[in-house]
Specification:
Strands 1, 2, 3, 4, 5, 6, 7 and 8 form an 8-stranded mixed beta sheet that branches. The termini are close together. This protein has a single domain, classed as Maf protein. The longest helix is centred in the first third of the chain and has 19 residues. The mean pLDDT is 93. A hairpin with a 4-residue loop joins strand 7 and strand 8. The chain has 209 residues and is of the alpha+beta class.
């Protein structure tokens, strides 16, 4: 059995391999599996976008190699940041918020500026990650994970990526970009969704072994 994750992001793949490493399966990115097509994610939620991508990548793999598809699970995720003060922005548009090619250093700076009048609890926010699995035989599994926090008053930390440097965790007194990879995996939205998915896949793969 192999697991193909619908991403080309090296940071994300490292996190995925760390958390799903206990499964008895080869774990590949979509590019490593020979899929380079872009999928239009036009859903209205993280869960819908993840499902659209998982199903589309599975069909592409099936077209390329029907026999291999019988032993392949495709996983796809959609994740992003929801800021309550900004009515849930950037939400499902997190990756292309303020322009797809705008560097995150600039996006983070602008978000902090937009929250200049927000104090403490008003700065509440969360990272959300939805993961969809498409299994051989048309089976489907969906999980979701969330990490609650606040938007910080300044950019801090270099361990994370994206919006991590402005996502402040009051219980830790630091941003998610200041956490070690092990600390982050233990509490992150993607970590939670992946661990839930790993447990469900263990059951599914053992039932079909």
């Amino acid at each position: 059995m192999r697991i193909v994750f619908a991403t080309g992001n090296k940071d994300k793949m490292r996190e995925i391999r760390e958390i799903l490493g206990g499964l008895n399966a080869e774990i590949l990115s979509m590019k490593e599996a020979g899929v380079f097509e872009d999928v239009v994610e036009d859903g209205s939620s993280f869960a819908e976008n993840a499902r659209i991508k998982a199903d589309a990548i599975y069909e592409l793999l099936k077209e390329k190699d029907p026999e291999a598809a019988d032993h392949t699970v495709v996983l796809a995720d959609d994740s992003g940041l929801e800021i309550d003060f900004l009515n849930g922005e950037p939400g499902i548009y997190s990756a292309r918020y303020l322009g797809k090619d705008t560097p995150y250093t600039e996006k983070n700076r602008i978000i902090i500026e937009r929250l200049a009048d927000a104090k403490d609890e008003e700065r509440s926010a969360r990272f959300v990650c939805a993961i969809a699995a498409t299994l051989p035989g048309a089976g489907k599994i969906d999980t979701i994970g969330k990490m609650e926090g606040r938007i910080g008053y300044e950019i801090a930390g270099e361990n994370g990526f994206g919006y991590d440097p402005i996502f402040f965790l009051p219980e830790y007194g630091k941003t998610s970009a200041e956490l070690s990879p092990e600390e982050k995996n233990a509490i992150s939205h993607r970590g939670k969704a992946l661990r839930a998915m790993a447990e469900l896949l263990k059951e599914e793969l053992s039932d079909n072994a």
